[in-house]
């Protein structure tokens, strides 16, 4: 929801929005000034200053010191029939064992857990349980019964109510509704002549009289489709009764694809996915764009802007109709076609769901049901609490029974009816705190997370939501857009956590923008970068990204455009030599995306187009730009043109995703940064058993560069950003075997090289990244040669095997933690003796020796021999 952080009070004020991502705003008026400044910057097209969010956790902060303790509490099991009383529940809160620093906040956890349990018990008592409760769409809105259609609407503030629409000529005098004790209005409209009285795809509205005696027409809250007359400027939306006959209903052919080990997410906006100057459709996206996503080896698609939002430029974040598929790109059946097609390609589909707030538009949206009644009788809080100053939108009352029904049912609806595989929940920070994150700088101090400022109703809502989603679809993936990093957000509800599977690592893109805007390449700090990338709670999973939709909305620009700017208009042809700026841009584009993926999280996200370095920025059609679609589309021709350099970035993106398929490193809990050398500008790390070497130096190529590793043996290149196919110079030999040398005295980590028990030497060209994998020795490979050598080899093998087993024990310690969901990405907080890399010890003087191509000196003959085996030496 960063996008609409900057949404202006009225669309007409500027015709569009300006992004804000500074959580430390000191006043909202400042923010407004900033928006204006941004808008001006947009007009001048250059020089805008995006203020950066400040969440600076020092490396080795509490985030690195996570202790593991008591087993997961089984108290809060999902089956509420066996649910213990609240008092007992709080005895054993698993999350307090996961992180002892949470213990001072035991009361807070007890309070929210009790609230959660009480709520579930109430659902059990009155609604047949949480899952039943979340089938509200079978009661509310329009539903077929045996001989007619029943329509129900919760509107306690209404004095009288009618159903109007095409079916009765918009005259409700014969279709008056009745209200029950809970403020629910209903009417049954019998079939006429065996046909439904309200035809499929006909327009309907709820007409009610409020306390002032005024009659108003509103779109039914649970409506499944809403349309607008495109020929009338500023026309209001109408509700549409969507109940296609079987022949027109889309039937799913494919089931949910298996859950990937780690999500590699392609974030997409269907409307702007065409290269033409128009809004693209669900079906065209399915047929034209999904195959691209598949070809680039993503395993998950995340769709923005699915729920109807009458203001297009809100990017889908000002939702007006929560159960309706946005009409701009087609019908509900068309969206089903898209999802089914994705499933046929083994792509999971996540929906960007917005429950953090609602559009304030009264004629088109849910806000129309607020006619000044009390919070208890409304979807929204009254007064300030019900209004989001920065987003100019309405804030839900998550403590209200009917609001819970509406929102929880909404989640179930998208899962059941459309077969989504999970959600990205937007604006979670805004939900978690009464201050919505406005004027807040999160420093990592736990008091900021657990205090009076925490909105317990919202926290409980999110616990209910996550628990519901996972009980309907155990394999669902649910991602929180939270910038605060609240501890426990990504821990199971059964432990007292909030139950998300992942959190978006929102500080990472800001770091890149900061570097690209404010630092020369010489000033890049390897330690700072690796700290920022690994700075997360290692017990909770993150989705990393270098840039999402947020980073390229108007006023900012894509990373590629940051890097290459106007040269993207003239310098992208392969037919001419790349200028230094284009060469640097493409090299860093690959490195930035890849190190973000490899080091930044347990999943990865890319926004549509950025995989190939889409230029410019995103700007929705609005008055200010003459309603232009020029910047609201994706120029696929750029990547499809063979003589343009975009294809290199695309090929690399494809390869880095494929690498994770082949050597699942994203899901690995083993992450060890062994070297961050400020002088060399090199970062060396291991993820899984892969060894990554990133050389950010603008000029220096290092030959025979010694890199630490865990397992001994033979290493080879798994991925090389310098390869020709990725627009590189092909300097690194791919047929070269890199044999390891043991390091230090076994069992004495201090004597190791960068705290790694083994090492090998590589060629590391300037501004490249190369990944090495350990070659599994197979018998065939060692079988040739005479008998004597076989004997030798076998002996050597068995000796090596012992060594490996010894090491493996250590690694497994980490993995067994992983099984209980305890993340031990050893980068910051390694605990095993061998992985005991202390961050302070990383830059050992030894690591500087003999690496620079000019100063390359063999430290001993044996090492030199190994180096000679690295065929790249001679080249
Ligand atoms: C956030 O915005 C405030 C007010 O504009 C500014 O003073 C502060 O420096 C900004 N913080 C960052 C990290 O950019
Ligand atoms: C609500 O949306 C309609 C168009 O759908 C627009 O004409 C109207 O101005 C909007 N109202 C507000 C308050 O934004
Ligand atoms: C949106 O709804 C209108 C009115 O029903 C319809 O004519 C139009 O085709 C729909 N748009 C799309 C893209 O299907
Ligand atoms: C292989 O090594 C063993 C000692 O481990 C030795 O007894 C045997 O003679 C060797 N065989 C050959 C063919 O060299």
Automatic annotation (TrEMBL):
The entry's keywords: Amyloplast, Plastid, Signal, Transferase
InterPro entries the UniProt entry points to: A-amylase/branching_C, GH, GH13_cat_dom, Glyco_hydro_13_N, Glyco_hydro_b, Ig-like_fold, Ig_E-set
Stretches for region Disordered: 821-875
Gene Ontology molecular function terms on file: 1,4-alpha-glucan branching enzyme activity; cation binding; hydrolase activity, hydrolyzing O-glycosyl compounds
CDD domains on file: AmyAc_bac_euk_BE, E_set_GBE_euk_N
E.C. number(s) listed in UniProt: 2.4.1.18
Transmembrane annotation, as ranges: none
Source species, domain of life: Eukaryota
Name this polypeptide is given: 1,4-alpha-glucan branching enzyme
Species name: Durio zibethinus (Durian)
């Amino acid at each position: 929801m960063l996008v609409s952080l900057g949404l202006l009070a009225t669309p007409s004020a500027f015709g569009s929005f300006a992004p804000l991502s500074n959580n430390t705003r000191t006043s909202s008026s400042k923010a407004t000034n900033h928006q204006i400044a941004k808008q001006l910057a947009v007009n001048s097209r250059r020089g805008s200053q995006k203020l950066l969010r400040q969440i600076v956790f020092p490396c080795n902060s509490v985030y690195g010191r996570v202790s593991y303790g008591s087993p997961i509490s089984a108290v809060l099991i999902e089956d509420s029939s066996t649910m213990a009383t609240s008092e007992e529940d709080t005895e054993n809160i698993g999350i307090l064992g996961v992180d002892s620093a949470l213990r001072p906040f035991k009361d807070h956890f007890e309070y929210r857990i009790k609230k959660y349990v009480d709520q579930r018990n109430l659902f059990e008592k009155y609604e047949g349980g949480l899952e039943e409760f979340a089938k509200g769409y079978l009661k509310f809105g329009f539903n077929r019964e045996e001989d007619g259609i029943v329509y129900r609407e919760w509107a306690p503030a209404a004095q009288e109510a009618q159903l109007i629409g095409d079916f009765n000529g918009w005259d409700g005098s014969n279709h008056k509704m009745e209200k029950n004790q809970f403020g629910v209005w209903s009417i049954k409209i019998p079939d006429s002549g065996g046909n439904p009285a309200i035809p499929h795809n006909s327009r309907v509205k709820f007409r009610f009289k409020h306390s002032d005696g005024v009659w108003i027409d509103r779109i039914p809250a649970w409506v499944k489709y809403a349309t607008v007359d495109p020929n009338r400027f500023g026309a209001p939306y109408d509700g549409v009764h969507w109940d296609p006959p079987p022949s027109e209903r889309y039937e799913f052919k494919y089931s949910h694809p298996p859950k990937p080990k780690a999500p590699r997410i392609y974030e997409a906006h269907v409307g702007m996915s065409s290269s033409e100057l128009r809004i693209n459709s669900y079906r065209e996206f399915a047929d034209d764009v999904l195959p691209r996503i598949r070809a680039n080896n993503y395993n998950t698609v995340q769709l923005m802007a699915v729920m109807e939002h009458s203001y297009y430029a809100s990017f889908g974040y000002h939702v007006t109709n929560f159960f309706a598929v946005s009409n701009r790109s087609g019908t509900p059946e068309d969206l089903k076609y898209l999802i089914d097609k994705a499933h046929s390609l083994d792509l999971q589909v996540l929906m960007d769901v917005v429950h953090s707030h609602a559009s304030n538009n009264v004629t088109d949206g849910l806000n129309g049901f607020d006619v000044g009644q009390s919070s208890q009788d409304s979807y929204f809080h009254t007064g300030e609490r019900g209004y989001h100053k920065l987003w100019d939108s309405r804030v839900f009352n998550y403590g209200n029974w009917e609001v819970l029904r509406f929102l929880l049912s909404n989640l179930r609806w998208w899962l059941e009816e459309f077969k989504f595989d999970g959600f990205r929940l937007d604006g979670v920070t805004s939900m978690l705190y009464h201050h919505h994150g406005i004027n807040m700088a999160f420093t990592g101090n736990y008091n900021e997370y657990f205090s009076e400022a925490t909105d317990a109703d919202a926290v409980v809502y999110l616990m209910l939501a996550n628990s519901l989603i996972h009980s309907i679809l155990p394999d669902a993936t649910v991602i929180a857009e939270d910038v605060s990093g609240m501890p426990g957000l990504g821990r199971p509800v059964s432990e007292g956590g909030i139950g998300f599977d992942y959190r978006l690592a929102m500080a990472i893109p800001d770091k890149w923008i900061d570097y690209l805007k404010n630092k020369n390449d010489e000033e890049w700090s390897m330690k700072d970068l690796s700290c920022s990338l690994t700075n997360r709670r290692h017990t909770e999973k993150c989705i990393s990204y270098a840039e999402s939709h947020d980073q390229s909305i108007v006023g900012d620009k894509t990373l590629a455009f940051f890097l290459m700017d106007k040269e993207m208009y003239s310098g992208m042809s392969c037919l001419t030599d790349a200028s230094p700026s284009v060469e640097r841009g493409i090299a860093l584009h690959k490195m930035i995306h890849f190190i973000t993926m490899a080091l930044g999280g347990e999943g990865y996200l890319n926004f549509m187009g950025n995989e190939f370095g889409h230029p410019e920025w995103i700007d929705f059609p609005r008055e200010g730009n003459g309603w232009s679609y020029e910047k609201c589309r994706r120029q696929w021709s750029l990547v499809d043109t063979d003589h343009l350099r975009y294809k290199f970035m695309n090929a690399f993106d494809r390869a880095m995703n494929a690498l994770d398929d082949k050597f699942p490193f994203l899901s690995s809990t083993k992450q060890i940064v062994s070297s961050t050398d400020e002088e060399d500008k090199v970062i060396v790390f291991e993820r899984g058993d892969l060894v990554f070497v990133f050389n950010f130096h603008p000029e220096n190529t290092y030959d025979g560069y010694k890199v630490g590793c865990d397992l001994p043996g033979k290493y080879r290149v798994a991925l090389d950003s310098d390869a020709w196919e990725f627009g590189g110079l092909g300097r690194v030999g791919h047929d070269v075997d890199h044999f390891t040398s043991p390091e230090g005295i076994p069992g004495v980590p201090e004597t190791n090289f960068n705290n790694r028990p083994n090492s090998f030497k590589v060629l590391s060209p300037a501004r490249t990244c190369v990944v090495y994998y350990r070659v599994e020795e197979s018998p065939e490979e060692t079988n040739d040669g005479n008998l004597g050598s076989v004997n030798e080899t076998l002996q050597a093998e068995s000796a090596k095997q012992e060594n490996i087993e010894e090491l493996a024990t250590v690694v497994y310690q980490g993995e067994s933690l992983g099984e209980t969901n305890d993340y031990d990405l050893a980068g910051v907080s390694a605990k095993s003796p061998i992985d005991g890399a202390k961050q302070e010890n990383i830059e050992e003087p030894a690591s500087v020796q003999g690496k620079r191509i000019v100063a390359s000196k063999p430290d001993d003959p044996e090492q030199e021999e190994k180096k000679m085996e690295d065929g790249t030496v001679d080249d």
